[in-house]
Amino acid sequence: MLWSRESYNELLGEFELGEFPARIKPGEIFYEGPIAVLISPSCISACEGFAYALTSTGRAIAVGTAGTAGAFGDVGFGQYTMPGDWSMQFPTGRPIDAEGNVVIEGMGVQPDIRVPKTLESVLGLGDPVLEAAIQALAEQLQ
Question: Does residue 68 sit within a domain?
Fold first, then answer.
C-alpha cells in the first residue's frame, strides 16, 4: 500500500479512513535499470503522488534543488460554490501510510540528491538538476 485517504468528518470532529487505499498493481517491468525523478516546489498534487510512489518503493531517486510543494491533500469533498460565479476548493483529506503517518502533505517529497541553486541555474543558463540526475544514474550503471 502506498497511501490511504483520511477525510475530515465534521459530524465526528475527526478524520476517518477512506474505503480504498492507493495501490499500484504491478505490471510487467519493461525497464529494470535505475530511475531518477526530477522534483521541485512546482511539483504539486498528482506530481507529488507520482514522485512519492517511485521513491517510496526504492525504484527511483529524487533529484532537485528543494522538495515538492507538500500539497497532496484530497479535495474531493472540499468543493464550494460561492456567490458571483466564484468557486473554491481546499483539502479535507490527507494521505497516510500503512502506519497512519501523514505522508507528503505539508512536507513534500524531499530530494535524495539536493542540487544547490546557482546564479547560472536561476538565470536558466544550464540545468544542474538534470545534470546531477544523469551523473547519479551513470554512477549506478557502472
Answer: yes
